[in-house]
Each structure stands twice: as C-alpha cells, then as structure tokens.
C-alpha cells in the first residue's frame, strides 16, 4: 500500500502565510532541486514570494539551529527543513540522520510551530534524485496544511 500524497484531498490556501525554508548545502545539486520544487509549490499554493524566506546552512546538522532562530523570531507560520544525507561507509550517516531529525522535531515542539521535514536520508545518490522533486513539493504542502491547521486550533 502506497502512502497518500501529502495534502491530497485537502484545500490548501497559503495566501496569508509566511513560510521560511532552511536548506542544507551539502549535496547541493539535490538540495537545490528540493528547494526549487518546494518554492514553486509554495507559490502555486498562494504563498507570496515576499513571504517566503530561504536561507542556507552548511549541512543537515546545522538546519535545526537555523530553524530555531527563525522560530524565535515569531515571523513565520511554518518552517521547512531541506537536506540530503547519503549513506557512506561510516557511522556518520546514522549520527547526522538521527541528530538532524531529532533537532527538527525538538524545535517544532518547543516553539509549537509546524516544520515540514524534507531532509532526505537515502542509501545512494540515485535514491536522492528519485525523491527530490516529490519531497520538495510534499514539504510545501505539509507546511501550508499544518500552518492552516494550527491557525484553526488556536
């Protein structure tokens, strides 16, 4: 059974939303594609270009601290984490994958702000490329849906 598309069947309106993206530059060709697709989808969902902030950091381990600074500003309705971690020959893959994921979740819970986590954790570059476009689009849809939900719940 395949997972349903993120945000499928939900009316997503990002017109009044302010969203920030933190992109890791490590594996930049893949993360650039994630960002390009994500930004295009945010705009398609009605998020004004002037309300999309896009910052970059060196790698996935630096994503949470940048997310935290953005969350601290209270200027955004949702955040998006973009990165790509490709398994290598050492334990470093597990460390980066686990710590970056835990950091993203911690920022989201501590600040009560939705964060769409599209930090890819893959076995090889082919898997990364196979996911980059869809996951960038999914991240935008998740951010808009969760920002709208949080507004409804408050």
Radius of gyration: 15 Å
Number of helices: 4
Give the % helix: 40-55%
The average pLDDT value, as a whole number, equals 94
Strand content: 15-25%
Order of helices and strands: EHEHEHEH
Structure classification: alpha/beta
Widest sheet, order of strands: 2-1-3-4
What's the overall geometry? globular
Count of extended strands: 4
Poorly predicted ranges: none
End-to-end Cα distance: 34 Å
**How would a crystallographer describe the biggest sheet?**
4 strands, parallel
Summarize the structure.
The protein has helices at residues 28-44, 63-73, 92-111, 125-153, and strands at residues 19-24, 52-57, 78-86, 115-122. The protein is built from four helices and four strands, in the order E-H-E-H-E-H-E-H.
Describe this structure in words.
- Helix content is 50%, strand content 19%.
- It has four helices and four strands; from the N terminus they run βαβαβαβα.
- It has a four-stranded parallel β-sheet, sandwiched between helices.
